Write a sequence for this structure.
């Protein structure tokens, strides 16, 4: 078995998976469609949406002593433990916020303002929530911002490119887990190891929003000081960002109520639904893992489930790029250019960037929609794309991002539509 090409879920399991999500095969108006913009949103688990509504409908303040309040406290405690399950995190502090972007600004501020050092390091491919936070606080505090270049072959950033910017005066390294344009996974384990060899005291923050639904995160293998995820990109609900901070990062001066513990980061009353939705996400991945392992240990089930998701998505990626005997893949379609097309699929999440010769990127997106396919244009006019695209010497791309609840047949339909677009004038 060639794991580099992935392994599809069985047809029976694929049916079960699809049944657990909203709107996989049709839109909210019951029109058939393929939603291939999961890097911008994500299919929602039915149980996560139900649990959100149930938990948020409860009027009780969880900071009370009566029975319902205690049940809300338990809901939050279980969800907090499940954040640790996702990350394999021990110690430190779990922090909920309105968005993962807001949390990233908060974490950057805490380190930049309170840790000595003359420079901070990031990469050109970072999401604006990380890159702009680093830019803002570097300027405010008179620190040098050093930016690692991208690699146009892999679509990511090389370990050496980051390492050469770090020295004993670097106070903060901020790096993402995977690119939301190319899908390239960063070698976080070697980045962390190499960076800490240069500067053992270095604080490291990681943006895992894009990668978390696609692969294993293990903070025991990659000991960082802060990491964020967004449940809405992980089969959950909007209006929530979840972060974890290490013991030393969590006690850095930060906005908090004076009477709270030194490592407490939440402001205002807790929203238990944020944590109960995380539990539904972990329950689902563990259910999937249970199809492939006899273990009953929660982290082991979760890791197995995520690994199976990664293998299925790799098979989807391979099918999209290479096609079948009956259906030409993107690499073989005349009139299609696959950007940042790195051969080692094990180093990529399920994101593909393409161009269609006879259509500009916005036109292509509209033509896809006419045919029941939702994709997204990455354009240099967008603050979410400009810096990254320019680093690859690109002016734009059509970004395609299915999810593990898509099937091989969904990919074939997409390829057939793409072949049609090659002849649209």
């Amino acid at each position: 078995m060639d794991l580099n090409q992935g392994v599809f879920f069985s047809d029976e399991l694929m049916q079960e998976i699809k049944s657990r999500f909203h709107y996989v095969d049709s839109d909210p108006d019951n029109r058939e469609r393929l939603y291939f913009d999961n890097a911008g949103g994500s299919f929602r688990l039915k149980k996560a949406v139900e649990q959100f509504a149930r938990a948020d409908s409860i009027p009780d303040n969880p900071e009370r002593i009566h029975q319902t309040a205690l049940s809300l406290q338990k809901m939050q405690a279980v969800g907090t433990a499940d954040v640790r399950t996702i990350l394999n995190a021990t110690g430190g502090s779990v922090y909920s916020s309105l968005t993962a972007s807001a949390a990233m600004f908060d974490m950057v501020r805490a380190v930049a303002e309170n840790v000595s050092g003359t420079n901070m390091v990031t990469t050109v491919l970072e999401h604006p929530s990380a890159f702009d936070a680093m830019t803002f606080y570097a300027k405010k505090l008179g620190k040098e911002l050093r930016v690692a270049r991208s690699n146009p072959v892999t679509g990511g950033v090389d370990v050496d490119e980051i390492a050469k910017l770090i020295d004993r005066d670097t106070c903060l390294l901020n790096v993402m887990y995977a690119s939301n344009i190319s899908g390239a996974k960063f070698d976080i384990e070697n980045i962390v190891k190499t960076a800490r060899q240069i500067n053992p005291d270095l604080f490291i923050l990681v943006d895992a929003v894009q990668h978390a639904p696609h692969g294993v995160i293990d903070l025991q293998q990659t000991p960082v000081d802060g990491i964020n995820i967004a449940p809405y990109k992980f089969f959950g609900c909007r209006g929530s960002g979840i972060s974890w901070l290490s013991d030393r990062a969590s006690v850095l001066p930060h906005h908090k109520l004076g009477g709270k513990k030194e490592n407490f980061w939440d402001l205002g009353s807790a929203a238990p639904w944020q944590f109960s939705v995380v539990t539904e996400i972990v329950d689902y991945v563990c259910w999937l893992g249970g199809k492939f392992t006899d273990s009953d240990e929660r982290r082991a089930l979760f890791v197995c489930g995520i690994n199976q998701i990664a293998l299925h998505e790799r098979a989807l990626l391979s099918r999209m790029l290479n096609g079948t005997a009956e259906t030409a893949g993107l690499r073989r379609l005349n009139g299609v250019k696959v950007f940042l097309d790195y051969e080692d699929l094990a180093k990529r999440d399920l994101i593909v960037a393409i161009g269609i010769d006879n259509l500009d990127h916005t036109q292509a997106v509209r033509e896809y929609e006419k045919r029941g396919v939702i994709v997204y244009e990455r354009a240099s006019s967008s603050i979410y794309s400009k810096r990254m695209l320019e680093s690859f010497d690109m002016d734009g791309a059509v970004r395609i991002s299915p999810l593990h609840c898509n099937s091989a047949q969904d990919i074939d339909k997409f390829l057939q539509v793409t072949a049609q677009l090659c002849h649209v004038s």
